[in-house]
Request: fold
Amino acid sequence: MNNRNSNDTPHEDAPSQAGRKPDQIAYSVRGTPDGKEYWNRVGAMWMHKDGRGAELVLDSMPIDGRITLREQRDQRMQDIRMSGLRSHP
Reply:
């Protein structure tokens, strides 16, 4: 049974994910008693062309239901941040 009405159909400006990098990455952020945070990637988000909406695709759902969206960054910068190294020109 389909409960969607005709106004709930996907927007024509919905992004095509094929070959397009996500605009933001979805993370589940867990804090620990010692103040550390663990960021786990759980999905990605693509903005619609008209800027009035987005498509969020989740690979997993955080147990607490809380998702943090962050702008997509260059992979090299992510690697540097994760390893704690500094970039040298």
In short: Confidence is low (pLDDT under 50) at residues 85-89. The helical segments are 75-83.
